[in-house]
Every structure is written in structure tokens, then in C-alpha cells.
Specification:
There is one protein chain. Helix 1 (about 1-15) packs antiparallel against helix 2, helix 1 (about 1-15) crosses helix 4 (about 45-50) and helix 4 runs antiparallel to helix 5. Helices cover about 70% and strands about 0% of the residues. It folds into 2 domains: about 1-85, no CATH class; about 95-140, Arc Repressor Mutant, subunit A. The chain is elongated and about 50 Å long. It is mainly α.
């Protein structure tokens, strides 16, 4: 039943029905938390991160919810790392990868912009996309991740 609710939630989220998606996620959480069954929810994190990270998601066990969120984030970054290793796949476009590599070298946004002859705003926007795709929070996190 848990996978059915998660699949329904993913469909609702894809259709833009956040309220319905949130209801299905709450059902899944209510049934998963007593037995600490977190992995199925983590498997759906890519499709349901917006719902799971939504402050409007109410949950009686905030600690368990935070565990699920953390596991989901690790699941996404781990999956990306495995795909990159096995298939040479990266979730980043070639330009995003270029910017990420320069950021990994600790160049500032302005320095990256100058080197690539683009605006600092473009670099900043691209870095935000990179962080989202890699499920990280900033330049310092780039040092510890393969992409």
C-alpha cells in the first residue's frame, strides 16, 4: 500500500496538485513511521522532494520526518554518483559541469563569470541549478561530491 500512496503522490505532484500529493505522502508517512520503513519514501524523494520539504507537510514525528528527508537527499546524491561511475552519466549539462568545476577550484562567482565571459548573475543562477541537481547547499559541498 505504501508504494501505491507514494506513486499516487508522485502523479499528483507532477500534475501540480500539491495538496493531493501532500495528503498521499502524509498517509504513507503515517503508516511507515511506526515501523521505521523509510527507504520506500527515500526512493521517491526525487519526485516528491517538493512535498517532503514543504513546511506545510504536517507530521506528528518531526524527527522521523527529518530522517526521511536526510535519507532521501543521500539517496539522490548516491544514485547520481553510482550512475556517474557506471555509465559516465552526470545530471549536469556540460556548461553546468564547467561552472561546477571552476567553483570546485574555489573561484568566486565574479572570477567564473570573467573566465567564461558570462554575467555573474548567470553564474549564480547556474550554481543554484547545480546545487539543486546535486542536492547540495553550496560551493563547499562541491568539494566532496563527484559529478
Amino acid at each position: 500500500m505504501l508504494y501505491i500512496w507514494l506513486e499516487q503522490a508522485a502523479c499528483y505532484e507532477e500534475d501540480g496538485s500539491r495538496v493531493m500529493a501532500r495528503e498521499r505522502v502524509q498517509l504513507a508517512l503515517t503508516h511507515a513511521f511506526p515501523d521505521e520503513v523509510y527507504l520506500p519514501i527515500a526512493e521517491y524523494y526525487t519526485n516528491l522532494s517538493g512535498v517532503l520539504e514543504d513546511p506545510a507537510l504536517s507530521c506528528k514525528d518531526e524527527t522521523a520526518l527529518e530522517r526521511v528527508r536526510a535519507l532521501g537527499r543521500r539517496f539522490v546524491s548516491g544514485t547520481a554518483a553510482v550512475r556517474a561511475e557506471l555509465f559516465g552519466y552526470s545530471p549536469l549539462t556540460s556548461r553546468e559541469r564547467e561552472i561546477a568545476l571552476l567553483a570546485k577550484e574555489r573561484l568566486s562567482t565574479r572570477e567564473i563569470a570573467e573566465r567564461l565571459v558570462i554575467s555573474p548573475a548567470t553564474v549564480k543562477n547556474t550554481l543554484n541549478k547545480i546545487y539543486s541537481k546535486l542536492n547540495i547547499h553550496g560551493k563547499s559541498d562541491l568539494l566532496n561530491i563527484r559529478f
